[in-house]
Amino acid sequence: MIYSFKGFTPVIDDSSFIHPQACVTGNVIIGKHVYVGPGAALRGDWGRVIVEDGCNIQENCVLHIFPGAAVWLKEAAHIGHGAVIHGAIIGRNCLIGMNSVVMDNVELGDECIVGALSLIKADEKIAKRSLLAGNPAKIIKEVSDEMIAWKTKGTQLYQQLPEEMKAHWKPCEPLNEMPEFQPSQEFLYETWNKIKRSKIQ
Question: Gene3D superfamilies recorded for this chain (predicted)?
């Protein structure tokens, strides 16, 4: 669902995948190898929404702004399921956890990680490589090289996903019983907690 609004038409690179059940409106610019999931809403009706190369905006996320403001996701920003970004700047290679809210005029430095269900209050300026969590969100510690490597690997899966969706995704009718044979699911990534546990054992 792509809509122009008051003379502004979204600009979307051909290498990106926008799910047909996502809604992109107006003054929105989407770069290369971006994934936008179903239910996501990118509303460039009152200001500009910029999504740089390699970002992903997962299911049911909202990107919006007050009049005259902007949302800016810098390269490889990773916006988890259900998150809301309202008039904020998200730095390069950041991770915003599921169902988090980042409010107006927030400037999140590069390579920050925001825990699920966190709220970053309006006007906060967050230094790069900060790990934040809570409501309101507080800086817990600095993001380690190991943590950012884990985050980057997860984002790379989403950067590959647009091409995979275009190659393999198609409407279908459901089966009414389990088939005799199914392909095995690929094992591509481990959760951070699982990685930490394996190092302790």
Answer: Hexapeptide repeat proteins (2.160.10.10)
- pLDDT of res. 64: 98
Has residue 187 been placed in a domain? no
Q: Is residue 172 part of a domain?
A: no
- Round the average pLDDT of the chain to a whole number and report it: 94
Can you give the pTM of this predicted structure?
0.92
3-state SS, residue 8:
strand
CATH number at residue 129: 2.160.10.10
Cβ pair 54, 78 in contact under 8 A:
no
Domain extent at residue 32: 2-142
In Å, the largest CA–CA distance within the chain is 59
Number of domains in the chain: 1
* Torsion sign, CA atoms 37, 190, 126, 132: positive
